[in-house]
């Protein structure tokens, strides 16, 4: 019975007859409870990848022993996308954290920059008002307080020190001006916008050199300042670079001997630079920088002075409007009207004085001597009443009044000669000539000045025409281009 069961259980194996000894040895391999002495370890099932060609959706069949599993490639792709998205999310999260830190840093810098600009503008505006008034006693007190209060904030302190260079310019305190420039040079290395402040320092140094008539050095500094323009914020500082370039061109034009071609080129460059300055000051004013307002006034007035040929040596007596092209006179009038109509409110005394002087020259160029005299007298009155005094404006006005007085005498003399000629028109030519000779030979009669025409000759005080030392100058010169 037992043999029959074994045969049925193992149908493919032939029956083997064991002897007693073999049976005993086999039986010893089993414990009393019938279990093997050693555990039977089942090997891992073999996995077969089977692709069903007839499957229209491309299912992948996985066989694990006797089990069959179906794997969808779309699900695998979604799993890959999910894993990629998780990786990207982690990477984006890291980037977001870094970007947030950058934004916070930028926000902090922007906030600090706005505070620096806001505080600096208030301080600079007050300093400018005192400078324009010539109130140096009050200015020195305010400067000391401002420096003491902001000594630890280099961004504000450097702006205060640089504005003090402007005060030194007005006071003609060159030693003090260069001392402030050296202090600013040390501070520039510690500020958040070194390129901007370095350019600021350069154009102020150019202004000091220009006032000392060190034109070549000032030109070199202006070249360096121009190279800094790409690193500067729009508005006041860029405008100031152009203003100083224009002022230097104008000063060289009116103080130096120049050929006609050079003089014409200098004039064009000065006008162009002043117009650039005006554009940038206007953009700064649009951006609510009130410190640009007075600089805008100054630029318009200086442009008018260049156009009408302001100078103050008083060596020329010409009043012929033909000396200045009509379009230049119109340019000057437009600039002065812009100040009068749109920028007059709150205009400082020094600037008002300069406006009257420019207006005086415009009237003089148009032959309106009486109106020109009234403007010059008003300018002189303002300059003399200023607390600290405006020495440059006083000199300008006094020389202008002297020139206008001579021009008025010339006009009266010309009028008298014309009237005498009309009175003698009824005489015969011989009698008229004899009468004219007698009149002009009288010692008490003033010999009229010869009007200087656009050339290289002018009349001397004795009435004789001589070679002019003004050859190449456009119309003269001025020291007022600050």
From TrEMBL:
<feature type="compositionally biased region" description="Basic and acidic residues">
    <location>
        <begin position="98"/>
        <end position="115"/>
    </location>
</feature>
<protein>
    <submittedName>
        <fullName>Uncharacterized protein LOC118422259</fullName>
    </submittedName>
</protein>
<feature type="compositionally biased region" description="Basic residues">
    <location>
        <begin position="472"/>
        <end position="482"/>
    </location>
</feature>
<feature type="region of interest" description="Disordered">
    <location>
        <begin position="432"/>
        <end position="482"/>
    </location>
</feature>
<dbReference type="InterPro" id="IPR011990">
    <property type="entry name" value="TPR-like_helical_dom_sf"/>
</dbReference>
<feature type="region of interest" description="Disordered">
    <location>
        <begin position="80"/>
        <end position="115"/>
    </location>
</feature>
